[in-house]
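Researcher: Sequence of RING-type domain-containing protein follows. Predict its structure.
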Amino acid sequence: MAAAACASLEETESFITCSICLCEFDAEFRKPKFLPCAHTVCLKCLEEIHKNFVIACPLCRKEFSYQDHVTCLPNNSYVLHMLRLTEKNAEATSKPDLQGKPTWCLTCGAVAKQSCSIHSIIDVTANTIKNFESLLNLRDDLKKMRDQGQTKLALAIEKRKEIQTHFQQLSESLQLVLHEVSVQEEQNNILLVEMISQLEANSPHLQSHLLSSGMIPGQDNQDPLLSELMSVVDGSKPEDSFEILKEKMKKTLQCYESKLAEAVAMAKSITYQKKSKIAVWLTDSNGQAIPTWDLLESGFNTYWPNDTSLSPTKRDFLLLSHIVFSIQKRGQKINKQTNFSAVSHKAKPVATKLDEPSSLVKTENTNKTVKLDPSTEKFDLNKSTLILTVRRQGTLKGTVLIKLSSSCDSPFIQQLGKICFHSPKHFSDVIGKTVPELFLLLPACKELADFSYNGLTGLPSTRHYMEAGISLCSDEKGVFKSWNLVFPLRHFEEKKNEMHVKTLQPIHFIGQVMKGIDVIEMLSWTSKHQRSGYTFTLESR
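Model: Prediction complete. Tokens:
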């Protein structure tokens, strides 16, 4: 019985004492505070260990993120109750009359004796004394249940963290799929806009309108039949012979045939993918079949030519089909690389040039061939894009993508494309003329002005929104010395703005703005005192 009393005494003292500073808890400065790990620490110690919104438990070393003040943590109400009982006992006399009504010794955890006069004792009734031992047992049971609950809550938190990791990985995967689809969609849009522009430029009605309105200079006295022939052939000149016209027409036809073959191959690949049936079977970790939806097991395809709006289930099927075929293509590439590597290890070492067939890899479902060494690439006007990067005081403000048109072929464009090919060049530090929602003019720096301007004046003019053009600047003798990059905006063609437009030199069309029109419009709204600190770089790809 004595051993049990001593154990109860030690437990009571440790229960109302902070394990860190070894000071007794109180109701003001050293309030007993519960940590998420179920340990109790006084408020003063908590204020010292709460750093950078993180609490590290001194007892179990676990760290918890806590944004509020530590006073918001829950109090240990049982400790406060024990403190109040202790305070009541302190108000009693130092040597109470133990021979009177029954008293209970909190230190010994039993009925007070004569030797308990220096301990913490309280006055109780006889019935209370009988039930006090059951109360202590209840306290122990509650503590065990609390510990079990804290343990289960901690396990639940760990499981939720595993679920959170799964959803983060799933979100990253979906974002990657969306990025790949966006890149393919952007490439298709660039090719589509380019072909539509070429088709409109080669329209006989459009050419006849340009000839009759005099917008094509130097053709007033030509033979009507010759003018009609020249209007059919892209890039023709008055001095071209019939043989040259035929040769140019053959090259144009070959280019169009190549684009048609590429588009047909891509469309067939997509149709083949849509008509292919995909079946899904699920098994558990022991290989036992898991019952699923009948449509998954029997197989489905995504060929719905008459459906303009897809249901959520069909959208899921379409996404699953795309992912399955993406995995298949990636696996085929890995197998090819693995087989190529195995053959290379077995074969004798042979010097191979980059232009030999062994250094080429054919892409899936296309007729293109991609070289392994990107350094062998060359500037190709029909496939290139100008990239204008805008920064202010070193901070990136945006990029503008200009898809070059084949109709702007000239020595100037060829030289500019080669100099900037995969090598960003400093273009300008100045925003030239600008009228909000009318036009934006950016002058080229001296380093990019020492070019041959031959052939530029013969390029078609530009006046339409989402187009890009070049205007030339000449000296007093009429010699071209520099050039500007000009972007017509949404109100450029309105008659009420003709006075502003007349202040510009003739603008020669070079291509379509595929991305970044919002950046151009933002720059057009800058006032004079807001135009400092801008830098522009130009790159072709």
